[in-house]
Amino acid sequence: MKTLLSFVFFLLTIHSISAQDAVALIKEGDRLESLMNERGALEKFKVALQLHPINIYALNKCSELCSRIGKREPTEKSRGAYFEAAKTYAGAALRISPNHAEANCVMAIALGRTSLEKSGKEKINAAKEIKKHVDLAIKSDPMNYKAWHVLGRWHYEISSLNVIERGAVKVLFGGLPKASITESIKAFEKAKALAGGFILNQFEMARAYKKDGQKAKAIHILTAMLQQPNHTEDDEIIKADGRKLLKEWK
Q1: Measured between alpha carbons, how far is 96 from 103 in angstroms, rounded to an integer?
Q2: d(C-alpha 81, C-alpha 77), whole Å
Q3: Helix, strand, coil percentages in the chain from 3-state DSSP, rounded to 5
Q4: Residue 113 burial (CB < 10 Å; 0-12/13-18/19+)?
Q5: Contacts of 53 (CB under 8 A, 6+ apart)
Q6: Does the pLDDT value for residue 12 go beyond 70?
Q7: Which CATH architecture has domain 196-250?
Q8: DSSP readout, 146-201?
Q9: pLDDT category, 158, cuts 50, 70, 90?
Q10: How do the domains of the chain map onto residue ranges?
């Protein structure tokens, strides 16, 4: 009996040490991400998961970072590998906590990376799944600015479907999901109110205002965006795209 108790105590001690080490790795991952070293941060979160596989924070961070890093990859194959990893990490987080706001948010982001920028049936098939996850994220945490951004992007993309895609929606779903550029702008504005320094949100919001016929407003948003400090590795790329749009719009 004493031997059994000693063994149980040993296992509990090892688990406690592993959990503490995972916390330290997560803290370092957060630090590296704040320094815009996303690959370094991802490696720290991955090692943390080796020590504590059900750490939902680390799972969510791995998913989010895979989505961001993957978008910058030079080939379709490498992008696809990162996006599939993003979905895998998000799926693991959702199995632990199906209604978790951030887990649903990162799943919506991962699905959006693989589908919203494409055309045809793939985009349409993913539309309902993305909406389901983003709605759950906002319901669980109305302050999740990334979820509001994804909702804005969803409305933008679905309201922009071409005639062929709209026909496919009717066949597959019996009608077009409710989406509009007005709702897109509302969601982007909500994300801005929650996180004013979110560069990607400002860029996408400017595009939405331009699509809505409010070019002066769109130019003002992009001009202000260029004055914001960078927070992610994507931000300078987004700003370069913003400068190109300003040249086109002026």
Answers
A1: 9
A2: 6
A3: 80, 0, 20
A4: buried
A5: none
A6: no
A7: Up-down Bundle (1.20)
A8: HHHHHHHHHHHHHHT--HHHHHHHHHHHSSPPS--HHHHHHHHHHHHHH-TT-HHH
A9: confident
A10: 196-250
